[in-house]
Amino acid sequence: MLGLMAARQAGLDDPARLRRAERTRRVLSLELNKDRDVERIHGSGINTLDIEPIEGRYMLSGGSDGVIVLYDLENLSRKPSYTCKALFSVGRSHPDVHKFSVETVQWYPHDTGMFTSSSFDKTLKIWDTNTLQPADIFHFEGTVYSHHMSPVATKHCLIAVGTKSPKVQLCDLKSGSSSHILQGHRQEVLAVSWSPRHEYILATGSADGRVKLWDVRRASGCLSTLDQHNGEKSKASSETANTAHNGRVNGLCYTSDGLHLLTIGTDDRMRLWNSSTGENTLVNYGKVCNESRKGLKFAISCGCNPEFAFVPYGSTIAVYTIFTGELITMLRGHYSTVNCCVFQPHFQELYSGSKDCNILAWIPAPREPDSDDISEKSLPQQHLNPAYEDAWSSSDDEG
């Protein structure tokens, strides 16, 4: 690290290289933080978490009891041990609380004054953060499994919604309409994710084992259907041809640059795809245990080299390198099944929610002093050549 800092100071190295190295070190040293608690509000399992991208300070959580909680992650007490306090919650007594399990919460990408939530009660709600009142409510015919707003869109305000219907619903915040639909899946849509690179590109995963990429400007919509065999159907049965997984696809996540898409299915497999060509990169992650019957919320790091995936794995969180498939570590701390995790890119922190009703904070371990980072006190005192010593003294004893 000292070498990187010296090279940066001398102008011999790219400053971004030092940032990537330190971010990577911090992710590799993630551990359960015993000095930071997240206030326990939920009375049942936690299904979804989201940290707002503006400051990285406020976090939303949604639970199986329909409750939504907003937390302040900043340490206002300035004490070594502290609790992240809940600023408010949409509790069971709130008149507009979701009737059933909240499956997804998401901040409006450009402003903390608004957030969204969707639920098994067949609704998507748009909330005003300041008043805690719904600004709009979208109703659907079936259970809502997932929704997502584009993090980069400037020309549209569409929210993609995956429901029990095989049709992908697009809700327009400007008009309040949900009439736009994308047709192509054969079973319920469990996961949706907009590209962070192209504002009109959407990825969807379904219980039919298929992952589809859409350009929502096109009349036909569907750009491609991802094929785990990359078109080599000779060895594949007709049933598995043109499918991304041999089970339900219940998790999708783009890398931060939007160049790759990571998918997870109930066939206990995770696959990495080139998002522009639709090619399966054939990275082998081994068995990725996934017994969830609904959406699985996993996360990807940002600004590291290599990048990492944080995947709920039973009561633990598995950390993989994305491009090599190596299992780096298993984060253990929850007492029951982990449902979701979210990465905080500002400080390389991870938060996870579980059926045990707890939200845990995983924080980089403090840096150990380098072997060559020795304090001046431990160095022998060097005696200067008399020629370089001061010829005067400020001592009061000398006249």
From TrEMBL:
Q: Which Pfam families match?
A: WD40 (PF00400)
Pathway the protein acts in: Protein modification; protein ubiquitination
Renumbered to this chain, region (Disordered) spans 368-399
Keywords of the record, alphabetical order, are: Chromosome, DNA damage, DNA repair, Nucleus, Phosphoprotein, Repeat, Ubl conjugation pathway, WD repeat
Q: Give Gene Ontology CC terms.
A: chromosome; Cul4A-RING E3 ubiquitin ligase complex; nuclear matrix; nucleotide-excision repair complex
Q: What Gene Ontology terms for biological process does this UniProt record contain?
A: proteasome-mediated ubiquitin-dependent protein catabolic process; protein polyubiquitination; response to light stimulus; transcription-coupled nucleotide-excision repair
Checking SUPFAM superfamilies in the record gives: WD40 repeat-like (SSF50978)
Q: Does the keyword Phosphoprotein apply?
A: yes
**Domain of life, source organism:** Eukaryota
Location in the cell: Chromosome; Nucleus matrix
Q: Where are the WD repeats?
A: 95-137, 182-217, 242-283, 331-362
Q: How does it assemble?
A: Part of the CSA complex (also named DCX(ERCC8) complex), a DCX E3 ubiquitin-protein ligase complex containing ERCC8, RBX1, DDB1 and CUL4A; the CSA complex interacts with RNA polymerase II; upon UV irradiation it interacts with the COP9 signalosome and preferentially with the hyperphosphorylated form of RNA polymerase II. Interacts with ERCC6/CSB (via CIM motif); promoting recruitment to lesion-stalled RNA polymerase II (Pol II). Interacts with KIAA1530/UVSSA. Interacts with a subunit of RNA polymerase II TFIIH.
Which purpose does this protein serve, as stated in its record?
Answer: Substrate-recognition component of the CSA complex, a DCX (DDB1-CUL4-X-box) E3 ubiquitin-protein ligase complex, involved in transcription-coupled nucleotide excision repair (TC-NER), a process during which RNA polymerase II-blocking lesions are rapidly removed from the transcribed strand of active genes. Following recruitment to lesion-stalled RNA polymerase II (Pol II), the CSA complex mediates ubiquitination of Pol II subunit POLR2A/RPB1 at 'Lys-1268', a critical TC-NER checkpoint, governing RNA Pol II stability and initiating DNA damage excision by TFIIH recruitment.
Q: What is this protein called?
A: DNA excision repair protein ERCC-8
